[in-house]
Amino acid sequence: VLFRSGLSIETAGGSDNDALVAKLEQLTDWQLRTWETDHADLISAMKMEKLGSAAVLLLIILVATFNATSTMVMTIMEKYREIGILRSLGAGKRYIKRLFMIQGLIVGFAGAGMGVALGGIIGLSQVRYRFIPGPGGLYADQGLPIALQWTDFALVTVAAVLLCILAAWYP
Fold first, then answer.
1. Using CB atoms within 10 A of its CB, is residue 150 exposed (0-12), middle (13-18) or buried (19+)?
2. pLDDT-based confidence at 165, cuts 50/70/90?
3. Which residues have C-beta within 8 Å of that of residue 42, sequence separation ≥ 6?
């Protein structure tokens, strides 16, 4: 019976592990495994969790958009007399619509800005202080690992602003 021990090789971030494994297997008679192949189920579950989180976030933004739309409709209904006065003074429908679009954009940018700022603060705090505990086993003592990506922030901001533009345009 032949016993073999393990050898761990740590590569630099962003390196092509599959190419390195293929090259090492050609040079040796060893059977090599990467962390990704050993934990493929965990990686797949984390990707699904990220997708589910994005879907929930989109639903939250959609509810906020409906709330902004109903607020704009209520504002228009409350300002009905003032709109009539503006119309009698010569303001056109386009001008009045532009006023409400500007109001909707201000609300949208303010909400998106506050949401991105709050999300960034909470995310950076988790990276620094690890106040949200990780799942048992792999990250139990290190806290829940997160990776802040500017593309996620940009995508959420653009989606929120576009939905607020649609919400302001509707009434």
1. exposed
2. confident
3. 138
Q: What is the pLDDT of the chain when averaged over all its residues? A: 84
pTM for this structure?
0.65
The tokens for 100 are: 């409400």
CA distance 66 to 44: 33
Helix, strand, or coil here: 153? helix
Among 94, 113, 117, 123, residue whose Cα is nearest residue 164: 113
Looking at residue 1, what DSSP letter applies? -
- Placement of tokens 């576009």 in the chain: 162
Opening angle at CA 66, ends 92 and 153, nearest 5 = 105
Buried b or exposed e, range 104-114, using 16+ CB within 10 angstroms: beebbeebbee
> To which residue do tokens 């959609």 refer?
62
Question: What is the C-alpha to C-alpha distance for residues 94 and 109, in angstroms, rounded to an integer?
Answer: 22
For residue 28, the number of C-alpha atoms closer than 13 Å in the C-beta half-sphere is: 9
